[in-house]
Amino acid sequence: MFDFPSTRALSVALVALSLSSSFSSALAGAGDYEFQLLQPETQAGNDAVVAVRLVDRRSGKPVSDAVIFASRIDMAPAGMAGMAAPIEAIPSTEPGIYRYKARLAMVGDWRLSLAAKLQGEAETVQSQLTFKATP
User: Fold this and answer.
1) Domain YtkA-like: where (predicted)?
2) What is the pLDDT of residues 66-116, one digit of tens each?
């Protein structure tokens, strides 16, 4: 059997390349993703809508199909963390945009806390975003 050094080198290079691409995707973590408020202010009321975008920081592209399993809205930035409001997810027509309807009874600073799982990621993406409810 003949052993060709260039064939062996090519085989080693291909194996190394496949391992490095697998390794680099395994290095992606929760810190590679970010929730962003679409608007820093929303009108207070029973049907206030707060929208966020989930972005992959590495590519800048929106991330669709996240499973958001925890959401909470409260007035912690105003020193009233116990003042929480009911919140529910509502449909969005844009990829990577997640919308919530909340009953914001008071004007002031509010915090939206989210926790999400993404396909292929072991870590949970968590975020706390502050916005203002206006009259």
Assistant:
1) 29-114
2) 999 999 999 999 999 999 999 999 999 999 999 999 999 999 999 999 999
| DSSP structural state of residue 93 | S
Strands 125-134, 41-43: pairing kind: parallel
DSSP class of residue 122?
S
Q: Residue 40 is encoded by which pair of tokens?
A: 């820093």
Q: Which domains does the chain have, with CATH numbers?
A: 29-134 (2.60.40.10)
What DSSP line would sit under 50-76, residue for residue? EEEEEEETTT--B--S-EEEEEEEEEG
d(CA 33, CA 57): 5
Cα within 13 Å of Cα(25), Cβ side: 8
> Edge-to-edge, what's the strand order for the sheet holding 41-43?
41-43, 125-134, 108-117, 67-75, 80-85
pTM over 0.70: yes
Quote the CA–CA distance of 89 and 132 in Å, as a whole number.
19
